[in-house]
Design brief:
Length: 496
């Protein structure tokens, strides 16, 4: 299999991997919050259903009869308690109870479902007109008291986090026939809903993965049917020159098609990826409310950092494919090199690890010539070279950037030099190819290796302006990249 076909397939594999990872991440984040919101809504509706059932279980004059009685009307209370207990079992509720405020700051329980233990032992849970005991409930008496006295709303809801579990309390304020204000309350655990949430998410993820498998199979079949053809260039070259020319033209068209496809896909991927970045930033800033679970904060940070890395990678792919497809937009002008070098140094100083390297820009004379070029692309060329120098230079190392005119040919040269780990001789040409890297790098620097697009983009940008790039390097002694531009682009500086 020839080299260009391998590179093409690697590019296709990279794009497919990016699409898959971003799609699964986006779907998982969306699916989780969508399913969680639906299950919380379902749980609240379930609580409201139980509260509505109170009206059919408790007589309308129940509170008027029990409040003020000195003795327990056991049969009267037990009938209500049995019905409430049955209701809680059917509705997966922890407990259901009714409360009323006494003459002081105490709250009295006027009706309650049985506790599990008491119910199993066939013993009545003596809650009839008994002072509210917080040991009987997960929630604070103060919350319910404030609702009865100060809150003008009919419905009160609050969530409690306790020992990795979440509990929900819902109360409904009512008025008895005798004008007494009381509240019917329901509390239950969200654990069962969390299990349901996991099942819903698993089912959705399985459906989505199956869809992706079908989509990939369809695309592979489509590609194999209409576009895939492996050509033995050596045999065709031996047959005749004409077939070689035809094969070369086909290869060029395939390269253009690849570049156009990558450019189009990069645009399509970047849009949802920007959405992931925006949503994760909003959630990290807690724009719509606090996030009480530290694990969620940690996951959001991972999502945001990974999305930024993917966005940079996609931008590199997009820039590279634009150049290869001859669709790069160029804005040429006379660029002040001294100003540009200062800007580049300020930018690179903010890169990770740059503060631990000694980065020096050789000063230029104010009359140093200008260069007729696209300033943005020239900055990108120098930043990519400096970024590699920062990555592969040890702490305390030296990095130097300079610009000068070659007295022999009048060309303007830019030099980026470091005393880092260097590049092996056999890899000095390969690293300028897209997706290629120096595999002999020191193991300590393997973690800094990117996708192999930076230097490929540099060489393509340099060629756009008729320039050239030369690498001089020796392992463990450092590297020097020299970028040169033709003398026709060197313009006299009109500085006075």
């Amino acid at each position: 299999m020839n080299r260009s076909l391998k590179k093409y397939r690697m590019g296709m594999l990279l794009i497919a991997t990016l699409v898959y990872v971003i799609s699964v991440a986006s779907f998982s984040v969306y699916g989780y919050f969508d399913a969680y919101d639906k299950l919380i809504s379902l749980s609240k509706n379930n609580a409201k259903y139980v509260l509505k059932s109170f009206d059919y279980i408790m007589p309308s004059d129940y509170h008027d009869k029990v409040v003020g009685e000195e003795i327990t009307i056991k049969s009267f209370y037990d009938d209500v308690a049995n019905k409430l207990t049955s209701l809680t079992f059917k509705s997966d509720v922890l407990r259901a109870f009714s409360v009323i405020k006494g003459s002081n700051e105490d709250i009295y329980v006027t009706a309650s479902s049985y506790e599990d233990e008491a119910f199993d032992n066939d013993k009545a849970y003596k809650s009839y007109f008994k002072i509210f005991d917080e040991r009987q409930s997960l929630f604070s008496k103060l919350d319910i008291l404030n609702f009865l006295v100060n809150n003008n709303k009919e419905i009160f809801e609050t969530v409690l986090h306790k020992e990795k579990d979440y509990y929900l309390l819902t109360c409904n304020k009512k008025i008895s026939n005798g004008g007494k204000i009381y509240a019917n309350c329901v509390e239950f655990s969200l654990n069962d809903f969390e299990k349901s949430l996991e099942k819903v998410l698993l089912r959705k993820e399985i459906e989505f993965v199956l869809f992706l498998v079908f989509l990939v199979a369809f695309l592979v079949s489509f590609k194999m049917t209409f576009f895939y053809r492996e050509t033995d260039f050596k045999v065709e070259m031996e047959e005749n020159t004409k077939n070689l020319i035809i094969a070369l033209e086909r290869a060029k068209k395939a390269s253009v098609a690849k570049s156009e496809f990558l450019a189009s896909m990069s645009h399509e991927i970047r849009t949802p990826l920007n959405a992931v970045l925006g949503f994760s930033e909003a959630m990290m800033a807690e724009v719509f409310g606090p996030i009480n679970n530290e694990k969620y904060r940690e996951y959001l940070k991972y999502i945001h950092v990974s999305s930024e890395h993917l966005l940079k990678l996609i931008n590199d792919i997009l820039d590279l494919t634009r150049v290869e497809a001859n669709k790069a937009t160029i804005y040429e002008e006379n660029v002040d090199i001294g100003v540009l070098l200062d800007v580049v140094k300020n930018i690179i100083s903010g890169y990770n690890g740059a503060d631990k390297r000694n980065i020096v820009v050789k000063p230029l004379d104010k009359r140093f010539p200008q260069l007729f070029i696209d300033g943005r692309m020239l900055s990108q060329i120098l930043l990519n070279l400096l970024s590699n120098a920062v990555k592969f230079t040890r702490d305390g190392g030296n990095i130097e950037i300079s610009a000068y005119i070659n007295e022999k040919n009048g060309k303007m040269n830019f030099s980026v030099k470091d005393d880092g780990i260097g590049i092996s001789k056999e890899n000095q040409e390969k690293i300028f190819d897209a997706f290629e890297q120096d595999e002999t790098q020191d193991i300590l620097f393997k973690k800094h290796m990117g996708t192999g697009l930076g230097l490929s983009l540099v060489r393509n940008y340099v060629k756009l302006f008729g320039g050239d790039i030369v690498l001089t390097s020796e392992p463990n002694k450092g590297s020097e990249f020299i970028v040169s531009f033709p003398c026709e682009r060197v313009k006299e500086n009109d500085y006075i």
